């Protein structure tokens, strides 16, 4: 697992909303929160040295020596620098051969694409301990906010990617800025407004987000918060969504509808628990698929191609 290692303390957020509005809402707190109140590489043999050995006896000795090495458990096995392709791994069926003739599947680039997504994961991961820097907030309040965002997401019938990006924006912003309680709802609704514009083909207008927040904020406040959040995140919204990895895993599972739907549910549930912040999206999607297969009694992993 890879943990975020931000050590800089969050700076107080004063730019979202006017001072007058903050005083007016300070006594009542956030509308959502007030309404709910719930809860080392291994040593590999040098190829050049092996080519220089002309004796066949030395080659046989090396083979016997390799067979005598005890098999180590996967958890303790040293990592190898060489990246194996699917055809080089025993018992692994290449997933992309059947898509070679389909230009929309870009099978020749799929490995590079997911390598790039894995590289982005730690760059867009929030600090799992950011709540220690917050003065007004607690993890329970963050859970209530995410639960409300799930309801808004369902009401607007948005894509799953929009929900995951919304929560990621909230957590990354709270990692960098200290937010008062009366502005937490504004951060949440603005995060979903940004995520919808990034992921959706047709994103809801800002007036719908104002209405869903019970008109607690004006459209100008939401737009001003949007500019402030994007500037704080340096306009970096290239978050490797867990859905990307789940769809890739589901391809190996022959796109079984029940398993994928159950895994999506488990991934969405993980958004409510702050303890999942320390895990990468690829790990969350892999664990969700594994647990879904276990709970549905799908048996051992089998990848079949017809």
Briefly characterize the structure.
The chain is an all-alpha fold and 306 residues long. It has 13 helices and two strands; from the N terminus they run βαααααααβαααααα. Among the domains are: 12-21 and 120-232, Cyclin-like (Cyclin A, domain 1, Orthogonal Bundle), CATH 1.10.472.10; 242-295, no CATH class.
What does this protein structure show overall?
This protein is mainly alpha-helical. The chain has helices at 19-26, 31-36, 47-52, 56-68, 110-120, 139-156, 160-176, 184-199, 206-212, 219-232, 242-252, 257-270, 281-295; strands spanning 11-12, 177-178. The longest helix has 18 residues, at 139-156. The protein starts with 10 loop residues before the first strand and ends in an 11-residue tail after the last helix.
Write the layout of secondary structure elements.
Elements (H helix, E strand, L loop, with lengths): L10 E2 L6 H8 L4 H6 L10 H6 L3 H13 L41 H11 L18 H18 L3 H17 E2 L5 H16 L6 H7 L6 H14 L9 H11 L4 H14 L10 H15 L11
Parallel strand pairs: 1-2
Helix pairs in contact: 6-7, 6-8, 7-8, 8-10, 11-12, 11-13, 12-13
């Amino acid at each position: 697992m890879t943990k975020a290692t931000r050590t800089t303390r969050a700076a107080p957020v004063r730019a979202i909303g006017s001072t007058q509005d903050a005083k007016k809402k300070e006594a009542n707190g956030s509308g959502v929160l007030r309404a709910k109140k719930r809860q080392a590489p291994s040593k590999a043999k040098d190829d050049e040295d092996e080519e220089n050995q002309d004796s066949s006896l030395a080659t046989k000795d090396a083979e016997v020596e390799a067979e005598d090495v005890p098999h180590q458990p996967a958890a303790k096995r040293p990592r190898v620098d060489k990246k194996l392709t699917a055809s080089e791994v025993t018992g692994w069926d290449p997933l992309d051969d059947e898509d070679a003739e389909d230009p929309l599947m870009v099978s020749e680039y799929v490995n590079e694409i997911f390598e790039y997504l894995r590289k982005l994961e730690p760059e867009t991961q929030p600090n799992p301990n950011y709540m220690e820097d917050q003065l007004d907030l607690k993890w329970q309040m963050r859970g209530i906010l995410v639960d409300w965002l799930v309801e808004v997401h369902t009401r607007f019938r948005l894509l799953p990617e929009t929900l995951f990006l919304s929560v990621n924006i909230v957590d990354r912003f709270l990692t960098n800025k200290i937010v008062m309680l009366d502005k937490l709802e504004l951060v949440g609704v603005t995060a979903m407004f940004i995520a919808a514009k990034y992921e959706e083909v047709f994103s809801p207008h800002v007036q719908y987000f104002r209405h869903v927040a019970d008109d607690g904020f004006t459209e100008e406040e939401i737009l001003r918060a949007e500019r402030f959040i994007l500037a704080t995140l340096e306009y970096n919204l290239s978050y490797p969504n867990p859905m990307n990895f789940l769809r890739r895993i589901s391809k190996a599972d022959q796109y079984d509808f029940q398993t994928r739907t159950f895994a999506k549910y488990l991934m969405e549930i993980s958004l409510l628990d702050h303890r999942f912040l320390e895990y990468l999206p690829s790990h969350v999607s892999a664990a969700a698929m594994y647990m879904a297969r276990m709970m549905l009694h799908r048996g051992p992993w089998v990848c079949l191609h017809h």
